[in-house]
Amino acid sequence: MLSLRRSTLKYLQVRDYLRSLVGSELRTGDPVPSERMLCERFGVSRMTVRQAVDALVVEGILERVQGRGTFVAPPKVDLQIRLASFTEEMTRRGMTAGVSVLSSGVVPAEPDIADALEVKPGSDVIHLHRLRLADDEPMAVEHTWLPATRLPGFLDGGSPSSVYVELETRGLTPDWGEDTIDAGEADHEEAQLLTIKPGKPVLRISRRAFTGDQAIEYSRSAYRSDRYTLWVPVARPNPPVVPRRRQGGIVTEEPPGSN
Fold first, then answer.
1. What's the N-to-C CA distance of the chain in angstroms?
2. Which residues are 78's β-sheet partners?
3. In this predicted model, what pLDDT tens digit does every residue of 183-217 receive, in sequence order?
4. What is the average per-residue pLDDT within 99-125?
5. How far apart are CA 234 and CA 226, in angstroms?
6. Is 159 helix (H, G, I), strand (E, B) or coil?
């Protein structure tokens, strides 16, 4: 038991030392000290060093590159779920947003797209297939559909750099929406665009955005999970309201526990 406790303490020392190096001296892409150097410095086995490194890899602080070694990983972007464009989100983080338009045009709506946009199947919809960039690094592959009848001439000047900015100029800024979030694996096309290996985990987000009571946008995006961490604010729900006893023909309500 005592030996196990000492081993655990050594593992924590190595882990905390590496974490402090990342925070104070090393930059993204820098190699970390070798296993041999760490073994000699802390007087521990390679297994203990690997345990410490594994913990930081899981946290996303370090990354292993096969055949090369272990390096400081790029910092993750906190993906806050709110109704904002990719450009707005990256600008908020001090990053330069970019976009590469892979294809754009007007296409007939498939049944699932028609259902999401609340139009008839086969109706004209605008389709944008784009690669989203932050500081010139690929972050997400995105498919976006919009109802063509509500957006005449949307593509006349080419694909807009920001869909939401273009919607705003038309008085159609989305004011509410709903997101569906799933974990998935990158297919070959997504992997090539995102510069990751096929089968690597991605964060899949489907969004329906509305202007008033009409759907104005439907999108499906695959985000690199090695560059994003999902951040969702939460709050306690309001207390349920229960009916009071009927008094004089009137039913009053009060929160539970108020008696």
1. 54
2. 229
3. 899 999 999 999 998 998 898 989 999 998 899 99
4. 94
5. 24
6. coil
> Which range is least confidently modeled, 121-125, 225-229, 240-244?
240-244
Pull the structure tokens for residue 65. 């590159």
What global pTM score does this model have? 0.61
Q: What one-letter code names the amino acid at 22?
A: V
Task: List, in order, residues 6 or more apart from 135 with CB less than 8 Å away.
Answer: 95, 96
pLDDT band at 227 (very low <50, low <70, confident <90, very high): confident
What's residue 231's pLDDT? 62
Dig out the tokens for 23 from the structure. Answer: 């925070």
22: nearest Cα among 35, 9, 31, 13: 31
Angle at CA of residue 115, ends 112 and 116, nearest 5°: 90
Question: Angle at CA 54, nearest 5°, toward 40 and 64?
Answer: 90
User: pLDDT, tens digit, for every residue of 156-177?
Assistant: 988 888 898 899 999 998 888 8
Task: Give the relative orientation of helices 2-24 and 35-42 as an angle to the nearest 10 degrees.
Answer: 120
Q: Locate tokens 């330069």: which residue?
A: 96
Q: Which two tokens stand for residue 121?
A: 């199947």
Place of tokens 């004209």: 124
pLDDT value of position 107 = 96
Task: Please give the single-letter amino acid code of residue 15.
Answer: R
Paired tokens of 120: 């008839």
CB distance 244 to 253 below 8 Å: yes
Q: Which H helix or E strand runs over 21?
A: helix 2-24
